[in-house]
Every structure is written in C-alpha cells, then in structure tokens.
Amino acid sequence: MNVFISFSRRVVTASVFVGLASPLIVTPWLAFPFVSGKALFVEAVVLVALPFWITLLLLDPVARPRRHPLILALVAQAVVLVLASLFGVDPLQSFWGRDERMMGIITIFSLLALLGMALSVFRTRRAWNNVLLTALVIAWANIIWGLIEHFYPVFWADFRGESMRVVGLIGNPIFYGGYMMLSAILSIALIPEIKCRIGKVFLIITAAAATLVTLYSGTRGAGLGLFGGLAVGLLFAAFKSPIRKARVGLLVGIAGIIAALVFFFVFRDAPFLKPVRELRRLGSAFSLSDATAIQRMRLWRVSLEGALARPLFGWGPENFDYLFDQHFDPLFLKFTLRETFADRPHNAFIQTMTDVGVLGFLALIALQIIFIRSVFRLRDSNGSLWVRSAFVSFLAASDIYLFFAFDTLPTLLLTLLVSGWLIVSTSKMIISSGRIYSRQASFVVPAVGLLALSLIIFGVIHPASALAAIHRVTATDPRTQTERWFGHLKTAASIKQPYQEVARYRLGNAVFSAVGDGLVPDDRASEALELGIQALRQSVAGRPRDYGSRFTLGNLLLLSAARGRGERFAEAEAEFLRAAELSPRRQSTYIQLGNLKAVSGDPTASLSYYQQAVDLDPQIGEPHWYLGRGFIKSGEKERAVEEFVRSWDLGFRPKLKNEIREAASLLFGQGRLDFTILLYQRSVDVFPDDAELQAELAAAYAAAGNAEAARAAVRRAVELDPSFAAEAETFLNLLDSGALSAPAEGE
Fold first, then answer.
1. What integer pLDDT is reported at residue 230 of this predicted model?
2. Which domain holds residue 510?
C-alpha cells in the first residue's frame, strides 16, 4: 500500500507542476488558439491525475487538505456556481462554457481540483514558495514574448490582428496585462520569503520586467490595477509600520503614484507622449468621453438591468449572451456592428451578479474578506509586513483590474495559487490520524478512473477534434481547395461533442461569409448553403433561445432564396421574426427583414421594417442609411437623400461598395455634391485600388468646380487601370474647357 501511495503522490505532484505550465499553451491548429488549448490542457492534466488524487485522499490522511476558512469559502462559491447553472437559462452551456472563453464549470472545477491536489502534496510554506516561484519562472516565457513583440513589432503580428499592443502567449492584451500585473506583484511579495540572494535578484528582475510588459500591453485596467494596487499596499504598510520615517516615505511613494496617474491623464494627448502610446492609453482610462468607456458603461447598465430580472441565481455561468440579447440597447450600434454582441459585461463584479446572482456576489465578497483576514493572520517573521502589504496589493490590484475586465485561466490560476499559499501559511501543522478507507478505495478509484477517461474522450479529445476541424474550415480557401473545404465542413458538423451547437453556429457563419463573399464556386454554392442551413437548424433545435443561431439561419435562408429558392423567403422571414422576439431591440434584425422584403419585390413592406429599425433609436445612423435605400426602391428619391444625409450626420460610414455607389449616384443626380464627394472619398478610403471609384470621384470633383482634385483623382484612376487613359484624356480636355458642370438639382 505504501508503494501505491508513494506512486500516487508522485503522479499528483508532477501533474500540479505540469498544470502550472498552462499559460504557455498555444494551439494554432484549433479555432481559438490562445483559449481552447489552455483549458483543455488543464482539464486533461487534472483528469489524468484524478484517480491518483482520490487514492491519496482515501489512503493517506496526511494528504487531505486542512480545514481552513478560505477552503470553505471556495467550496461555497463552487456550490453557488452549480446551483446557478441548474437554475440558469442554459445549464449545458454553463457546465461546458463557451468555446471562445472555455470558463464553464468543468474548467473552473479543474482549476479548483488542481489547487486541491497542490494542497495535498505541498504541506509547508517553503514548498509553496517553490510552487509560486515555478509559476513565475513559467511567466517569464510570456515576459520575453511580450518584450520581443514590443521591440520587434513584426514578431507575432499574425496573432495580434491590427493591434500593436503586446499579447504574449495569452493572445489578448487585456488578459495578458492582467496576468503580467499579478505576476509583478507576486514577485514583490516573495522577495522576503526567499533567502537565496540569487533568488531575490531573480524576483526583483521579474517584478520589473512584468511591470514593463504590463504597461506595454496598453491595458488601462491592468495599468490602473498595478499602480492602484501598489498604492493600497503602501498605504497598508504606512498604517502598520511602527517607524515614523518609514511611514513618511511610504506616504510619499503613494503621492508619487497619484501624481504619475494625474500627469498621464492631463497630458495624455501631449505630443511628447506620442511615442509612448501605452502610457497615453493609461491616461485615457479617466476620460468619460472615450468611446470604449462609453460602451463599457452602457454595457454595465444593460448588465445590471438584466441582473435585476433574475436576482437570486442569475442567468447561469457563461450565459451572458442570453441576457445581452434580451436587454439589448440600440445605442450599441452607434460605433460598430461588432459592439452589438457581448459575452461578458467586462466587469467581474457585475458579471458575478449576472451569472450567479446575489448569492454568488455575497459569496465573492465573503471570499475576499476571508482572503484579507488570512493575510492579517500571517505568522510573524522577517519581512512579515512586506509580505502582508504585498498580498494586500495583490488583492487590490486584482479588484481594480477586474472592475474593467474578467478572470481568464492564467489570472484565476495565479489567484488560486496565492490562496493555497495563504491556506498553508495560516494553518497549524497537524499530522492527521484519520481513518484509512482502503476498502472504499477498491470501488471508488476505478469508478473515478472510468469517469475521468470518459470525460477525457468526450470533454477533451472530441472538442479538440471539432475545434481543429472548424479551424481547417476557416483556414481553407474554398476557391482553390473546394473539395477539401467541403470535407472539413462536413467533418466539423459530424463530430459529437459538448460544444456542437455552438460549432454548428460557427459553421453556418463560415458558410454565409464564404458564399456571400463569392468565395465558393457558383456550381457548389447551393450545396454549401444546404450544409450551413442544416447545421444551423440543428443548432436552433439544441438552443432554441439563442438569438445568434436564429439570425444566422435567417441570413442563410435569405441568401438561398435570393439565389433561386424563392419559397425560402417565407422561412427566412419566420426565423428573423423569431430572432426579433428573442432580442426585440436589435436594429440588425429589422434591417435584414427590410432587405428580405426589398429582394423579394415588396418595397412597401421593406420600408415598414426599416422604419422599425429607425424607431428603436432615431439617433443611430445605420438604420437611416437602409431606410434611404428603401426609399430608392420605392422611387422616393428626395426622401432617400434626406435619410442618407441624416445617416452620415449621425456618424454612420457605409462599407459596401455597391451601396456607396448607389447612394452617391442618387446624391449626384439630386445636386448634393458635398455629400456625393464625401461618399466617394469614403469609398476610395475603403477600396483604395478601385479605378472606377477614383474616376467617379473625379467626376464629382469636376461637377463641384474643384478642378485640381478632379485631375488628381483621374490620374490615380489611370495609375490603377491604364485602360482608363483614353477616357481620362477626354475628361481632362472637357475639364480644361469648362464643359463639366454640376447637374441641376433633381436631374
């Protein structure tokens, strides 16, 4: 038995250290390379070690975690999570999570299990110092990655999109900044704990480097968390320090931090800060006129409104999209269509209320109180005040950051590790003489092993296969690799796995984009549409309350109807109307209903739907644009011009070339040359290599009497397409003779 216990302990110990490496995991072959791999990796590691951990708990009383208020608080939160999931709007999504976040109950419980395993095999403060040091050594991979990104911007560019902010191996500057912020403060906390001089130097360098890349991430919440957390820690130390000079020095340090933040805010737009774009972003965190700040506060208002609708247990973990759809604010369309979808309120405290209700929020507050109480109970030792102050800083920094963001696997892992350190450091060393459950182990351990194996197959291997198939769909060009693209599409749709309904939704979107953009050969477009429609119908059947699946199914049916399946106009309209019931204040649904009626030959009905979109909030420009297009179809040109101008004045900027040209042509004919030129300028900004648009812009300039601009535009058209040379020469001759003039209004 002792050999079996020893072997189990070694497996669990190795598994904990392997699990600590999860922030390093990047899986480019999966649909969400920075998220999916990390979560599946932790789940797999925990499931492999689970039977051995259960063996330890049953056979070795010493391995059983000690009773501690922090453990009880974590268990209470876990119980509330389960209850909120059971009473939420989508229990399965709460359990497995969404594939782009992977923070469902199974992932959270895996992290809690990893903490439990660590508490079973690491029983002393010194051992936990080594655990935290290991976590910081692992963090160095992300530090180095971030430094390379900053000083060599072309590095890792394919994974950063259009952003120049560093993302490390986390994939998002917001979450990278939070992870590095906590790593910096944790390094500071451990300095008195490590007696080796080399270890202290390592921690000082780690703290400095992690601070640097936190700022390089350009994440305002992480930057404020870092400075604010340090200020709170210094304030705590000032109150606790018995030395007057030390108190004065600490208060001066706090004043310096506040002065630095005020400086960055006041001079955030100053030219001398232009090269340091990350610090300029930190200053803009206090600006209420910032577009991101406006959207965040609007999102918080909607989130609180939704929380009041289900106050006790909330909507369930990972179910925020249901809340957002039902309580959607039309003002979200003011900036971009992308802002009309959200799966988090970007405030962890509000998210707790929306996900798990009042009970969950109270459990979170209790956990934080117990965390601080544990910090105060740290045994006296050299550097005790330093350590206490640093952990106060850790909690304060985390809270400030989470006020603008939410926990991801790397940040939650670090927080749980710090909690484990506190549990061991504030517990009495007790050698348990508890009962050994050897008979029960012979039944329980095989059952746990079978369950773990099932979860590995169904919850890790199958999702990984499906996510890989989805990635292959989006990475394959259907124009040049048509058969391969269809093969990937069918494979991804056929894999049975926990995220299959969301996977089908993503496949439907992929088909809509590919067919809509003309990437699928015409003779195979109908086949692709049928596959997408079939996948989405299954998704809708599995998640009948999901707005996104309904809306995308309506789009695919509309596209199919426009390509010759006229009977599907009615089906598409039914899906859009059901989507409107699920999210009654989204303009996009009514705009698509208007487009459907316009395409099907009913312009009068299209005007009604477009007007509904406008009436949801007349201060949003995009619905006015489509109402103008509806007026064109119904022959009401003057009213169309009014709506186009109104749309532009409200800040909407169209992106579809045919829509821009149609509106510009109408405005040109109605003599509204100012807006005609604005639209064509917009079009050449979006499509800078389109010679026809340059030629049309030249004609508008000429009609407005701006000969110099007209010459420049026509020369650009000839550069892009030399076949325009003869027409350009004629145009320039007419321009020089004064024969080109503006059309009469209404012509």
1. 94
2. 476-573
Assigned domain for 104 exists: yes
Whether residues 296 and 425 share a domain: the answer is yes
Q: 361-378, pLDDT tens digit by residue?
A: 999 999 999 999 999 888
CB 124 within 8 A of CB 336: no
Q: Are 502 and 411 within one domain?
A: no
What's the CA gap between 684 and 672, in Å, rounded? 19
- In percent, how much of the chain has pLDDT > 90? 59
Cβ proximity of 432 and 375 under 8 Å: no
CA distance 404 to 347: 5
In a domain, 79, yes or no: yes
Indicate if 333 and 399 belong to the same structural domain.
yes
CA distance 319 to 356: 10
Mean per-residue pLDDT over the chain, rounded? 89
pLDDT at 274 over 70: no
Q: How far apart are CA 533 and CA 546, in angstroms?
A: 16
Short-list 331, 369, 373, 327, CA closest to 350: 327
Tell me which of 368, 395, 429 is where a domain ends: 429
pLDDT at 553: 96
- Based on the structure, what is the number of domains in the chain? 2
- Is the pLDDT confidence value at 23 over 90? yes
124: helix, coil or strand?
A: coil
pTM of the model: 0.90
Domain match, 383 and 314 both? yes
Contacts for 107 with CB less than 8 Å, ≥ 6 apart: 39, 42, 43, 97, 409
Quick one: average pLDDT of 345-373? 95
Strands (E), 423-553: none
Name every residue whose Cβ is closer than 8 Å to that of residue 39 and which is 6 or more positions away in sequence.
97, 102, 103, 107, 110, 409
Average pLDDT over residues 300-310: 95
Does residue 379 lie within any of the structural domains?
yes
How far is Cα of residue 731 from the mean position of the Cα atoms in its chain? 51
Token pair belonging to 728: 């350009």
Residues whose CB is less than 8 angstroms from the CB of residue 199 and which lie 6 or more positions away in sequence, other chains included: 133
How many C-beta atoms surround the C-beta of residue 162 within 10 A?
5
CA angle, residues 286, 290, 294, in degrees to nearest 5: 100
Q: Which residues of 377-387 are buried (b: 16+ CB within 10 A; e: fewer)?
A: ebeeeeeebbb
| Whether 421 and 511 share a structural domain | no
pLDDT band, residue 384 (cuts 50/70/90): confident
pLDDT attached to residue 747: 45
CA-to-CA distance for 178 and 281, rounded, in angstroms? Answer: 15
The most confident of 64-73, 504-513, 571-580, by mean pLDDT: 571-580
Residue 225's nearest CA partner among 400, 414, 411, 402 is 400
pLDDT tens digits along 591-622: 999 999 999 989 899 999 999 999 999 999 99
317 in the same domain as 395: yes
State whether residue 688 is helix, strand or coil. Answer: coil
Spatial distance between the Cα atoms of 392 and 379, rounded to a whole number of angstroms = 15
Span 411-444, pLDDT tens digits: 999 999 999 999 999 987 655 567 788 777 888 8
- Using alpha carbons, list the distances in angstroms from residue 504 to 97, 471, 487: 16, 13, 15
pLDDT more than 70, % of the chain: 93
Q: Where are the alpha helices (DSSP H) in 563-636?
A: 568-582, 587-599, 603-616, 621-633
3-state SS assignment for residue 667: helix
